From TrEMBL, chains A, B:
It comes from Coffea arabica (Arabian coffee). Residues 109-288 form the FAD-binding PCMH-type domain. This is D-2-hydroxyglutarate dehydrogenase, mitochondrial isoform X5. The gene is LOC113699360. Its cofactor is FAD. It holds the Pfam family FAD-oxidase_C. Keywords: FAD, Flavoprotein, Oxidoreductase.
Length: 543, 543
């Protein structure tokens, strides 16, 4: 351990000296305790690339990963210990189950873990981490494994800790709307539970059937309701988390307001599991409103989309709950690859499509309000065509177009996915410039949460191709950085973008993050084993 | 500096060893680098008590403060340096101005600073802090000085840094609603600016005419709109802050979503200036909605108030923007001490009064909706009586009752103020138990943001009296802690409650806060001068 600590410190301070130096070789993961320390290379490392199912390198050439030899290899004694702690059922070594847990949803990232642990409560999580820490065994927390940035699967042979058995709802207060539950609860189950109580989750996303609330919180998942209900930083009231040395941090408040000291829970929201494993969550849920209306519209240019958003915020301010967009390439893709989907606005393809959802408490008024808004938008020329869902089936079919896009892209072949926040007025410029940059080799498909300034930029090609990748990166990151955007709006950094943080965060801020991590480690002197880089319970799926 | 650092470390680790030990003597402020390290006493310290204007001790007996002799005394050379840096106007030594800056709004906390600095931009803030750090001069950031917990004024002779001259609005984006401004902007000026643009601040509070946005953010001010628009953790999109060694931390993003690394800005929101001085703020502002309706109601018991809140959330969910309450003692106090105020529901005094505000986009529907809700509430027996404001003057008069309470309390004599978050169903139990506890010596007056679970508990007496204080504390903190409440919902800890943090936060969490502070200090090896304990730019007033 001492050697490890010494290496940590060397790294820490060397990274400071190296600040301002240009990247020569980017290393992430094991060779550094912290993924953010990625700006300098201390010793020569053999070139190593993981291969995806498709046999292509899935990282950019500059980003390679290496197993840190300081981490131990799992021994039979370790297995015995875990079996005593968790029972036979909690210790999974079955090849099929391990294969699934080692591979991400896209089949793009693949680890080689030999051990999956399934704790049933916080105490077991604490004991697992304490033991791994003492044995210097690397761990990766995993939830629903729905992430898109290589954050939820092992890279090498880490112990996978899945909190999926921790799925109890602990309390629900009907007056305050505060739900307290264990981290392994599947989002869709929480949505169903609340539905019966007359409430909804402030969070909804395409992966709701698999993703877990602990993972949602750990990755600060965004999704479809952020426009209305804000981010998890606003709605998560409390957390319980286990630090790498096994310390249980009780921050499980259920109060809407609490100004007593630093609000540390926010550090765990979106830190992708690198500071600890979230085990319980307390979240403020809004009452379910009875009246939901959905419109599907077409605009001929991006300027109209922006103006429509502004108008919608003004005219539908109180009830607007979603403002999603897709471009014509996205619509064509869905129509081609998803069974049973039809364009609600036939026959021609328009340049842009907008899905607007309102949620309120008065069916008659809300519908009239939305109809008046649509009429006015058509008359003023902002909207070329539009239709209001007449029943729940039609409403679902509208949402299916938007939510089916990730699946359609997977069916279309290889896909390079980028999840960007950009100033609204610049957002579509990137899409157009990317089309010029890529040429005819691949299709550039754009959709996303326009109301939140969040673009999902997808480059769809017949197969993965390094020449295409070289045209996308670093162009997409540089463009985003130049326009003060974020290279990860809601997906997180994961393995894919850990080394790219400098495109979105200032050097002083990154240095503070590194120091913070050391702060946590200093609290826990024997704790450098947590696999920082990709230890993400569950990433939010491109929603 | 080395000696200082060594003392820091001793303190840090000793505090760990002392965890679990019972408080014997509570020290806050200078004798410890960090206010949170308040659980043990390392060396004998002469007893010292500050006296308020009224000549009474304003801290509880166990809480005393001492000037740390390691801090330097301001010299003529220091004054010369600051005059060169800021010009004559930026260096205030005038007795009258210093007296105002040394005294808090309630006249309860009083420092003896000899120097008030007024930087005009971030660079000057940075230079001031860098210099103070190198000279080991203690500083206290101050904004509108409207705080209620002794956080915004010096305790001894700290240099006061007031960012009130940094009051430029830097940008406003009408599509996204993102406002970027300097920290010294007065909240009311921002509200006026946005009003012209068709937007509102997500934050409103009684002190808006004086308090500054940097202070609001630093103290995570709550106020009147939290029910609708959530806390500043949700609406602040970015910050610029200057750390104690002068490092400028650019976290001034304007994006709604950004998941790239730890979201460090949240540490500055509510850290009461102890980690750095906020110099710029980027905030998401909602569109102004045209229709505002206000009702003033009476309930006969607290259970009805709770049920009414639940009903309001369900029936007015989309448009509910405030749900405030006051009890009969609060109403009597306002009627007695504020000129021109009358009870909208005469002639008798009811047990509880509720102010409900809705904000929506359709005047006709919203009014009908609120009327129907009121009618139903009266019919079901939840509401004893009620009135809907017929014009803006009547609406203002309703709000004046609620907002005028702090002023009425000040006029009534001495007041002990407590700002608590409590589980809704328990909230009023505390008020009733406190009445039994205090007896006839003082009046217990309760009001607050019922919709947020935030009680403002006030004990109003003819004069400050240690016997009364002894009946209130630690009873009020113990009761709150026992019921998993927060001893500071929105006012912050300040000098008043820094040593009380353990009532609301677990030992592990407090220890992490301490370690985090050291992390920041380790980033800045020469930085222990920042006056951690009470360095709050501007506390939110009891709104």
């Amino acid at each position: 351990m001492e050697k490890w600590r010494a290496a940590d410190r060397l790294l820490k301070f060397s990274s400071r000296f190296a600040s301002g130096t240009k990247l020569t070789c980017t290393i992430i993961n094991y060779d550094h305790t912290h993924p953010l320390v990625s700006e300098c290379c201390f010793f020569p490392i053999p070139f190593y690339c993981c291969k995806s199912k498709q046999g292509k390198y899935f990282y950019s050439v500059a980003t390679t990963v290496h197993r840190n030899p300081l981490f131990s290899i799992i021994s039979p004694d370790d297995i015995s210990y875990f079996k005593t702690l968790l029972g036979e059922r909690g210790v999974v070594q079955d090849a099929l189950a391990l294969d699934a847990a080692n591979t991400d949803w896209m089949g793009k990232y693949r680890g080689s873990s030999k051990l999956l642990l399934q704790p049933k409560n916080t105490e077991e999580v604490s004991q697992i981490l304490k033991y791994c820490n003492s044995r210097c065994l690397a761990v990766v927390p995993q939830g629903g494994n729905t992430g898109l940035v290589g954050g939820s699967v092992p890279v090498f042979d880490e112990v996978i800790i899945n909190v999926g058995l921790m799925r109890n709802i602990l309390s629900f207060d009907k007056v305050s709307g505060v739900l307290v539950c264990e981290a392994g609860c599947i989002l869709e189950n929480l949505i169903s539970f609340l539905d019966d109580e007359g409430f909804i989750m402030p969070l909804d996303l395409g992966a709701k059937g698999s993703c877990q609330i602990g993972g949602n919180v750990s990755t600060n998942a965004g999704g479809l309701r952020l426009l209305r209900y804000g981010s998890l930083h606003g709605s998560v009231l409390g957390l319980e988390a286990v630090l790498a040395n096994g310390t249980v941090l009780d921050m499980l408040g259920t109060l809407r307001k609490d100004n007593t000291g630093y609000d540390l829970k926010h550090l765990f929201i979106g830190s992708e599991g690198s500071l600890g494993i979230v085990t319980k969550v307390s979240i403020l849920t809004p009452p379910k409103l009875s009246s939901v209306n959905i419109a599907f519209l077409a605009c001929e240019d991006y300027t109209s989309c922006q103006k429509l958003l502004l108008e919608a915020k003004k005219k539908l301010g109180g009830i607007l709950s979603a403002f999603e967009f897709l471009d014509s390439d996205a619509m064509s893709l869905v129509l081609k690859h998803l069974d049973g989907v039809r364009n609600p606005l036939p026959p021609s393809i328009h340049n842009f499509y907008i899905l607007i959802e309102t949620t309120g408490s008065n069916e008659t008024f809300d519908k009239e309000n939305l109809e008046a808004f649509l009429l006015h938008s058509v008359e003023s020329g902002l909207v070329a065509n539009g239709v209001l869902a007449q029943d729940i089936n039609q409403a679902s079919s509208f949402w299916h177009i938007r939510e089916g896009l990730p699946e359609a892209l997977m069916k279309a072949g290889a896909v390079y996915k980028y999840d960007l926040s950009l100033p609204l007025e610049k957002m579509y410029d990137l899409v157009e410039e990317m089309r010029v940059q890529i040429g005819p080799a691949a299709k550039v498909v754009a959709y996303g949460h326009l109301g939140d300034g969040n673009l999902h930029l997808n480059i769809s090609a017949p197969a993965y191709d390094d020449n295409i990748l070289a045209k996308i990166e670093p162009f997409v990151y540089e463009w985003t950085s130049k326009n003060r955007g974020s290279i990860s709006a809601e997906h997180g950094l994961g393995l894919m973008k850990a080394a790219k943080i400098h495109y979105s965060k200032s050097p002083e801020t990154v240095r503070l993050m590194i120091d913070f991590d050391y702060c946590v480690f200093e609290l826990l002197p024997d704790t450098s084993c947590l696999d920082d880089n990709h230890s993400i319970i569950c990433l939010c799926l491109s929603a």
